[in-house]
Design a protein that fits this description.
It comes from Mastigocoleus testarum BC008. This protein is of the alpha/beta class. The protein has 19 helices and 15 strands. Helix 2 packs across helix 3 and helix 17 packs antiparallel against helix 19.
Length: 486
């Protein structure tokens, strides 16, 4: 059984016009920190005759922008609906349909006798935007497959950073705040019991930190927030001896060592390389799994792609998705799974975390072959990183993502400097608020929630992904408003 949640308060979804992203942190942490199985008690899959498995995830995001009629914070999706003649804004309707349609596809397939699986990754920005727009139809569709016991076993939600912040360039003190805020917001929308089942994590842009201290704090925060595993991009990790992964279809143990020699690890499922959205839209993971040899435990082909972006996802995915599940029969030796379901199934078969292949972020072998863990200090690590950069201009500690041709740092000083300053001001404000005499947690105050929200919004990756111009101007506006709030 999952933790008892009946005694927990029913959380308001919106407070003072803002998403409920803070105030009940202790209840959230009590709910997510448990070691009970989540999918195993109800799974209808047995590994006895299974050759291989596959898991697919859909990533959904729309940024929050200061572009309402009077400069209010609105979802970019709302802006698309209100300005259909700009760019590809005519796709607003299809995008909204994509955010909702799993709530129809899963029940349809289950009622037809199929055994589908899907993992969902929705940013906090998007969930709030749907609330702001009054899109109860979309949220109700999602609640149906999340909370209805008939359909819940076929769907797994993945946690993420609330504001779609790429982890390597997010101020370290804010990493855990993003993780916790998403859990908080999710519980407010879908309930405590649903939150207790969220055990996998999807980093925005598949961006994995490779700086030793950032990675360590990221994994530490994930584990403190009850996560058991995360999805990582194949080319963003290496073996402990600095080579590419050889067994990418088996679970790995992502090892992090910080500049003081401390180590921590978490399970990683490997997202294979390729054109992500096209591969998911055409259900390539299923067909790749069919081509694999039999392993013990059965291999898993993991893939994630944007759930709404591009014609292939909008138009080809529905038929390909349904066709694949109709092909899989009770006698098939390849089945679909969710990440947590797969890990619980192989654990029940005797394959535990100690058996997982160790790996680390790409580039770290070059550091640790020069710095002995017992001699590690912040100075020795930073000096080694500086030496490596001098020897090889291609070496960097910005992390790796599924958009490796784009730097999330270079050329964006006009966003990063204000972002770091606002974060610093936010943490100064926290200290002030925490010292006030009050009868309830200071994180439940509107002042805190509003300051936290602006801090998150400025860290949204879109303000760098979309280049200089309108998007950096949005960032400037958010920074100025946030600074005034602080």
């Amino acid at each position: 059984m999952l933790p008892t949640t009946a005694s927990l308060p029913s959380l308001p979804e919106i407070i003072d016009g803002l998403p409920n992203i803070s105030g009940w942190e202790s209840e959230v942490l009590d709910t997510v920190n448990h070691d009970r199985t989540v999918f195993l008690p109800r799974t209808n899959i047995s590994l006895d005759n299974i050759k291989a498995t596959f898991a697919i995830a859909l990533h959904m995001h729309q940024p929050t922008i200061p572009a309402g009629a009077n400069g209010e914070l609105i979802s970019n999706l709302q802006y698309m609906f209100e300005h259909p003649g700009e760019g590809d804004n005519h796709n607003a309707g299809p995008f909204a349909w994509c955010y909702s349609r799993m709530g129809e596809f899963i029940p349809e397939l289950v009622n037809q006798g199929c055994n589908p699986r899907i993992m969902l990754d929705y940013s906090g920005n998007l969930l709030w935007g749907l609330q702001q727009m009054g899109r109860k139809d979309i949220l109700d569709n999602l609640k149906r497959i999340t909370c209805d016991s008939t359909y819940q076993p076929y769907v797994e939600w993945l946690g993420t950073m609330w504001g779609h912040a790429v982890v390597p360039s997010t101020p370290i003190p804010d990493i855990k705040l993003h993780i916790l805020a998403w859990q908080h917001h999710f519980a407010a929308i879908f309930g405590w019991e649903a939150l207790a089942r969220v055990k996998g994590f999807s980093p925005p842009e598949m961006h994995l930190p490779n700086h030793p201290d950032t990675l360590f704090e990221f994994i530490k925060a994930l584990k403190e927030c009850g996560y058991r595993w995360l999805l990582v991009q194949e080319h963003s990790v290496e073996t402990l001896t600095g080579e590419g992964l050889k067994e990418k279809h088996l679970p790995h143990r992502l090892v992090a060592r910080n500049s003081q020699g401390e180590t921590i690890s978490i399970t990683a499922l490997i997202k294979t390389q390729g054109s992500d959205t096209k591969l998911v839209a055409q259900m390539q993971p299923y067909y790749e799994a069919k081509s694999l040899s039999r392993f013990k435990p059965p291999a898993i082909v993991s893939q994630i792609g944007d759930g709404e972006n591009g014609g292939v996802m909008m138009n080809e995915f529905p038929n390909a998705f349904k066709q694949a599940w109709h092909q899989i029969t009770p006698d098939s030796d390849v089945v679909g799974v969710t990440g947590t379901e797969y890990l619980e199934l192989i654990a029940a078969a005797g394959f535990g975390t100690d058996d997982y292949i160790p790996c680390q972020p790409v580039g770290q072998h070059l550091i640790w072959e020069r710095v002995s863990p017992r001699d590690a200090t912040p100075n020795t690590v930073e000096n080694t990183i500086a030496q490596l950069r001098q020897e090889n201009p291609q070496f960097h500690m910005e992390g790796a993502s599924w958009t490796n041709h784009i730097s999330w740092v270079e050329g964006y000083e006009n966003v990063l400097a204000p972002m770091n300053e606002l974060s610093s001001l936010f943490h100064q404000k926290i200290n002030t608020l925490s010292e006030e005499d009050r009868s309830e947690p200071f994180t439940r105050s509107s002042d805190y929630r509003q300051a936290l929200l602006y801090n998150f919004l400025l860290q949204t990756s879109c303000f760098r992904y979309w280049g200089q111009g309108t998007w950096t101007e949005y960032a400037k506006t958010i920074y100025e408003r946030g600074k005034n709030l602080m």
